[in-house]
């Protein structure tokens, strides 16, 4: 897993690894260029100045501390419900497919297309379901997304499915009708399972860097996101934005998307991440 991480992070690594043995002003420049942002760069530099000792080690420890936010507890009643939301093109469909594939190695999973907005959304997800060799609940364009989710959870119960993955329609955080639909999906889940979605995750395109914080905040306020997935991390030079994103939102990063293939996802671990960054 470490190797996969290293390869996928090569862009970010190119930048961070230069901090090894660098002086403090170089570190400042590196952090700012990686889109860590002024606030968190200052915070990290203050710690380095205060601690003395090995600069690289302090830097690594500080980044781990900043990324180490508590992860949500997954309930013990099946099906575990995992819902993924996000703006258009942020990687929701690809991500639910990758996750279903990952989980299917250990348990019975079900993919659910609750995107009833986009043309051919079900067809797209069906292709992924075949690739991952997992079951799917499809839907029709214009169908009520809440009803699709209701049927899917009923089916999951009848078939003793362990975990279901719900793909939702892409929306701008400013589109209130679509935001209402997400709330409705969440209400339907909560009616059928009092604890609500076990994971209510937001996909964020890592290339947006710090610019993603405002839109993410709106999703968080509206539908109570409890974990983040940074997608397209393989191509970004703004990987340092992961620090302001999760700290401003006070949400842990749970996965990183690192490519377009079905295996291109990594469960996020702050230590492994930082080790790979500084390789
Ligand atoms: N390089 C790279 N590309 C990705 C990653 N995740 C998704 N993509 C690409 O991003 C594009 C959009 O992905 P989708 O999964 O369709 O995004 P979506 O959020 O479902 O899009 P809508 O349903 O239209 O809102 C596709 O071309 C994917 O191949 C990733 O981790 N790395
Ligand atoms: Mg989609």
Structure description:
- The chain has 279 residues and is of the alpha/beta class.
- The chain has a single domain (80-277), classed as P-loop containing nucleotide triphosphate hydrolases (Rossmann fold, 3-Layer(aba) Sandwich), CATH 3.40.50.300.
- 48% of the residues lie in helices and 15% in strands.
- It has twelve helices and eight strands.
- It has an eight-stranded mixed β-sheet with strand order 3-2-4-1-5-6-7-8, with helices on both faces.
- α7 links the parallel β2 and β3.
- α3 packs antiparallel against α4 (38-51) and α10 (213-223) runs parallel beside α11.
- The longest helix is centred in the middle third of the chain and has 17 residues, at 176-192.
- The mean pLDDT is 93.
Number of domain modules: 1
Helix vs. strand class: alpha/beta
The value of Rg in angstroms is: 19 Å
Helical content stands at 40-55%
Shape: elongated
| The CATH topology | Rossmann fold
Largest sheet descriptor: 8 strands, mixed
- For CATH, the homologous superfamily is named as P-loop containing nucleotide triphosphate hydrolases
| CATH class membership | Alpha Beta
Q: Please, what is the average pLDDT?
A: 93
- List cofactors, ions and other ligands: guanosine-5'-triphosphate, magnesium ion
Give the end-to-end Cα distance, rounded to a whole number of Å.
14 Å
CATH architecture: 3-Layer(aba) Sandwich
Spatial strand order of the main sheet:
3-2-4-1-5-6-7-8
Counting DSSP H or I runs of 4 or more residues, the number of helices is 12
Low-confidence region ranges? none
**SSE run:** HHHHHEHEHEHEHEHEHEEH
As a percent range, the share of strand residues is 5-15%
Number of strands: 8
């Amino acid at each position: 897993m470490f190797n996969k991480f290293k390869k996928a992070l090569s862009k970010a690594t190119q930048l961070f690894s230069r901090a090894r043995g660098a002086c403090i002003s170089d570190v400042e420049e590196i952090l700012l260029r990686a889109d860590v942002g002024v606030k968190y760069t200052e915070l990290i530099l203050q710690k380095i100045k205060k601690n003395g000792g090995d600069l690289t080690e302090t830097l690594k420890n500080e980044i781990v501390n900043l990324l180490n936010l508590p992860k949500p507890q997954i309930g013990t009643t099946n099906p575990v419900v995992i819902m993924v939301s996000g703006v258009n093109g942020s990687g929701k469909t690809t991500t639910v497919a990758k996750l279903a594939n990952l989980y299917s190695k250990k348990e019975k999973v079900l993919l659910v297309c609750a995107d009833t907005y986009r043309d051919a959304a079900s067809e797209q997800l069906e292709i992924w379901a075949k690739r991952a060799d997992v079951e799917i609940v499809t839907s029709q364009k214009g169908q009520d997304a809440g009803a699709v989710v209701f049927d899917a959870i009923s089916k999951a119960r009848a078939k003793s499915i362990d975990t279901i993955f719900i793909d939702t329609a892409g929306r701008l955080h400013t589109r209130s009708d679509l935001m209402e639909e997400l709330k409705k999906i969440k209400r339907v889940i909560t009616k059928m399972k009092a604890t609500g979605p076990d994971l209510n995750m937001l996909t964020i395109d890592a290339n947006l860097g710090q610019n993603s914080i405002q839109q993410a905040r709106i999703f968080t306020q509206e539908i109570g996101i409890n974990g983040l997935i940074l997608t397209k991390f393989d191509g970004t030079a703004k990987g340092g934005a992961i620090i302001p994103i999760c700290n401003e939102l006070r949400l842990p990063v749970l996965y990183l998307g690192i490519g377009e293939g079905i295996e291109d996802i990594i469960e996020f671990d702050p230590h492994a991440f930082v080790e790979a960054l500084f390789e």
